[in-house]
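Task: fold both queries, return tokens.
Query 1:
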Amino acid sequence: MTNSAILARRLMRAHHTAVLATSLPGDGHPYASLVLVAADHDASPILLLSDLAEHARNIAADNRVSLLFDGTRELPSPLTGARLSVQGRAVREAGAGRRMRFLARHEDAAEYADFADFAIYSVAVGRGHLVAGFGKIEWLEGTDLLLPGAGGMAAWEAGAVSHMNGDHGDAIQDYAQNLLGATGAGWVMTGCDPEGCDLRRGGEVLRLDFETPAFDTDSLRQRLAALARAARAKPA
């Protein structure tokens, strides 16, 4: 597990929007659009798209896509920041698991997710192009970019998130305010994966990363408890 792959996954997991590039039928001209995005447990991107949208019609003809995750926002010199372009194929999904993860990240999308023209897509990642600043540029194959062994978390993630929100809401506020620099109360946990947790308050989202992955409930409990202690020890 290389540092580059960890950084790339952190970019994918932290962002709730991305730029989606597809190809227009006929001349193949690139078409870029802003989309909402979530990440599966292994960091594979998840999208909710309308069949009426230009990018969905493009995917129906050619499902090769690219997603840009931009970590340069608000930097005084944007080109010093990290960004990742992910190449892969968008695959329409029929299962409930990825839909649940997407809607947990984007609560407002539940208002239209059941419309007949909307569908969940997962991106089967082929490779990624990481630019981590001037001169720090490399390609990562999908097998190196994604996190192996992450699928088992799907069986118990919902219970862990429910427990945290129901019994440890104070710790979640401490994570947001003392570790991640957020202001205001009302933060909730919306999801977990082996490398961290997602927090939300209204339209704001935050990413709480772990130093090392947690692939089972005991490891997750240990990571969250250690972060809670660190958050309490740090002045707000």
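Query 1 returned. Query 2:
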Amino acid sequence: MEYFSYKINPTYARERFHEAHDLIIKSWTTDGPFSWEGKHYRFRYINVWPRTYQKPHPPIWIPGSGSSETMEWVAQKKYTYMVLPTLAPFELRRQAAEYFSACCEKAGYTVRHSQIGWGIGIYVGETDEEARREYEPHYWYYARNLLKTTPQQALPPGHTSLSSVMGMMQRRLQSRPGNLSTWEEVDKAGYVVVGSPETVRQRLEDYAKKVGFGLMIANFSVGNAPREYTEKSMRLFAERSCPNSGTSTLTRRLANA
């Protein structure tokens, strides 16, 4: 959508991204100042200060929603691929993770757990019934009112290859949350993980074992959910689904799944 807003030719999306990547890496790893005269970016002086704490640079996570070119590039760079979108069926995202793993094999190595990131919507209630009652209306508001971006805006001509566009559009049309009619369909397909602290923990452990992801980004807010619901869900997740912070049982199990 940003390409329409800023009047940028989407044909150059990928090469702009690659040049921006190279520029950022150089700024993190080169003592400045230095100049940059690229095709899309031009700066007279670049001098990052203070220097990055991690050496040679911070870990790099690249999000993707199914483009084969992105997964192949991320695998070649040995970066972490974040499987998106967060509100998509489990099987669709599992297939993306599987393809990324194959890209790593093609690049000459076996994917690490820490290279597969998993973004997913989570809501925790005291019971399964309470969680659904509080979360479901706001999920449908998001799915049926806020996800009205047209394919032309999300995938403008030239943004990615024709084969990737066709595959992504087909998957999106088949998996759009707004096309579903019942909560049972949403829950069974694994669009989100909603339930009691124990239900949420068990489902996440099951997903980790099936996919092999070692990183998870939880989306605790959805649609027009009130702030108190989001705060309660986060508190229950931290205290009962994932207690003791970074040394929790869930964290260790995800890492070892």
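Both queries returned. Flag for query 2: Residues 180 and 186 are 7 Å apart (CA to CA).
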